[in-house]
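Before relying on records like the one below, remember that each one covers exactly one chain. Contacts with other chains, cofactors or solvent are not represented anywhere in the record.
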Amino acid sequence: MRTLEAVTQDMDDPVEKDRHVVTALARGLRVLRCFSHERPELSAGDIVRMTGLPQPTVWRLCRTLASEGLIVCAGEPGRMALGLPVLALGYAALVRQPLARLALPAMLSLTERYRMGTSLAAPVGLEMVYIQRTHGDFVYFNDPVGARRPLGTAPTGWACLAAWDEARRAEVLKEIKRQDGKAFPALERRIRAAIAGYREDGFIISIGVLHEHFNAVAVPVRAADGQLHGLSASGLAALWPEDKLREIGAGLVVLSRDLGARPDSTSKEMQ
């Protein structure tokens, strides 16, 4: 299976041919994107496999990033982690996300009332990045802000796929298929069914996709700057079968509109 980073590299290659783009900088940023909540420590070999870059190039990039404090020794020989300056960059990005702040009271209310976890996430490449989270009873998926999930399986990702126009959706689905062609037909059927549900109800339902004991409902939300996000509520499948999720979904549709995703004020992607 091709890695997400390799797919992202293929998507970025045309940019590298732009003479106004600094290729070395783009590659350095690609190295930084290899680290995540699930992969906090990596070796140079890991980064070579994930990016497809030559090993000498990776060594030079890592040495340069280390000189700026963006990469540090993880404590074990040959292993690296992100440095604290990256955290500062992350918080600088978060402070200009008013949607995360606006959505938090309603997300906390949902969690306190129903014990469901909630997520507000934005698409970045083929991943959804959490910009706001509240933690419910299903501990397995209580990821923090900054964590990432594959767009093709995350409920928030399905909400974005449902809201994008057909051209954008086809482009993203094509890249997901390239990532894992064998599993894609079954996944696509579930995504298409969720999109059909969205067209009828205004929300998507995810039953046992991320985990057999994990169900979720999600809606698209557009921020004031036009960026599309996904907002989900999730919980144990035994406690949240589809009929109960639909009740929550109706409330999420109202919340989405209150937060700014009104059909009369959004682009054709939301139609």
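Residues 98-270 form a domain with the Beta-Lactamase fold (CATH 3.30.450.40).
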